[in-house]
Amino acid sequence: MEYIKSKIRDVVDFPTKGILFKDLTTAFKDPRALHIIGWDLSQLYRDKGVTKVVGIESRGFIGGSILAFELGAGFVPARKPGKLPADTVKMEYAKEYGTDTIEMHRDAIGPDDVVVIHDDVLATGGTMAACYELVKSMNPKKIYINFIIELEALNGRSTLPADAEVTSLIKY
Question: CA 141, CA 143: separation in Å to the nearest integer?
C-alpha cells in the first residue's frame, strides 16, 4: 500500500476551500499502482461469488470496472440523473448543501446477484449509503461495499448500514 500511497496526489482547497483532496488519478495513470489496486481489490472478493460490481460515477467506474473484470463479474454503472438510456430506478439523498440523486437501470440487479458496490473514496458516506439502498431495493442475495481510500476522520463508515461488510484498501 505504501507504493500506492506514494502515487496519490494531495490537492489543497479542492473542490472547496479547506478540503485536502486525495487525487487517485495519479495512481490510476501509473501502471504498477493500477495493477496493485486491481489485484488487491479482487483479492478481497475472490471467493465470495460476486456476480455484479456497481461502480459509482465517476471515479468509481475505474476501480469498479477493474474489479468486475478481475472477478469475471458484470459491471453496473450508478449514475447521475439523465445519463442512463433505459428505464431506471433512483434514490435521492441529502448532501451538505441540498440533495442529489443516483440512478441505475431497473434491470441491472436481480435476486440471484451477489453485488460489490465500489467507489474510490469514502468521505461522508452519503452517496454510498444511497447507492446501497438503491441496490438493496433490487433484492440481491448479498451486498458488499468497497473503497480504495477511506478518510477515517470524516466518519463516513458510520453512515453506512451496519449489516454491510465495508472494506477499504487505504485508510487516512
Answer: 7
Residues ≥6 apart with Cβ < 8 Å to 87: 105, 106, 107
48 DSSP assignment: T
15: its cell numbers: 473542490
DSSP states along 111-164:
TT-EEEEEEEEESS-HHHHHHHHHHHTT--SEEEEEEEEE-GGGTGGGGS-TTS
Residues with catalytic function: 59, 96
CA atoms in the 13 A half-sphere facing the CB of 132: 20
How does pLDDT run across 59-88, given as a tens digit for each residue? 999 999 999 999 999 999 999 999 999 999
Instruction: Please report the pLDDT score of residue 145 as a whole number.
Output: 98
**Within 10 A of 161 (CB to CB), how many other CB atoms are there?**
13
Residue 27 makes CB contacts below 8 A (sequence gap 6+) with 4, 7, 8, 33, 34, 37
pLDDT confidence of residue 105: 98
Task: Please provide the distance, in angstroms rounded to a whole number, between the alpha carbons at the two ends of the chain.
Answer: 12
Q: Rounded CA gap, 80 and 88, in Å?
A: 11
Measured between alpha carbons, how far is residue 111 from residues 88, 108, 136, 159 in Å?
A: 17, 11, 10, 25
